[in-house]
Design a protein that fits this description.
By secondary structure, this protein is an all-alpha fold. It has 6 helices and no strands.
Length: 172
């Protein structure tokens, strides 16, 4: 092969390689765009199906927080006897039962929201136990003490409920 033959070979090869590289680049760009578009459409479709379920989970957790709020809890759960220890256990058991009933909702909530709800439940139980340590002698007096303690400060349920509302607002 002569120098002129090698030059002609490069003259035909270089444009073909450049055209091939450019075609490969545009084909890859097009495939990535199509993949992203399909992923977006799939995500959009799944959002349309899961959003009502997620909203329902937030609604159930808001109801849970309202039900374990001390004022509504002591009104709804009346003492069965005069024993303050039994009433304290009844209140705690009611909170635990409500929580277990809504346990499956955690898969639709963010981890942070679920932790806030668990903290509100624990803080409410702690407030009841703290009131149970007082020197009251009857369940009715314990009921009054628990209510009085929550009148002075914001309840854990109200704090958690405001967090849930804020998180729901971020869904829009």
């Amino acid at each position: 092969m002569t120098g002129e033959g090698i030059f002609q070979l490069f003259a035909y090869t270089i444009p073909a390689v450049v055209t091939g590289v450019i075609a490969f680049y545009f084909f890859r760009l097009h495939t990535n765009n199509e993949e992203g578009r399909r992923r977006f459409l799939l995500h959009k479709d799944s959002q349309k199906n899961t959003l009502p379920i997620r909203l329902q989970a937030y609604e159930r957790m808001a109801l849970f927080l309202e039900r374990i709020a001390i004022p509504s809890l002591v009104v709804r759960v009346a003492p069965k006897s005069a024993d303050k220890g039994a009433y304290e256990q009844l209140l705690i058991k009611t909170i635990e039962n409500e929580f277990e009933h809504n346990l499956s909702q955690q898969i639709y909530l963010s981890d942070e929201c679920w932790n806030v709800i668990k903290a509100a439940k624990s803080a409410t139980i702690q407030m009841i136990r703290k009131a149970g340590l007082s020197e009251t002698d009857s369940a009715d007096k314990l009921r009054e003490d628990v209510l009085t303690e929550t009148m002075d400060k914001s309840s854990p349920s109200a704090t958690a409920l405001s967090f849930v509302k804020k998180e729901i607002g971020e869904l829009w």
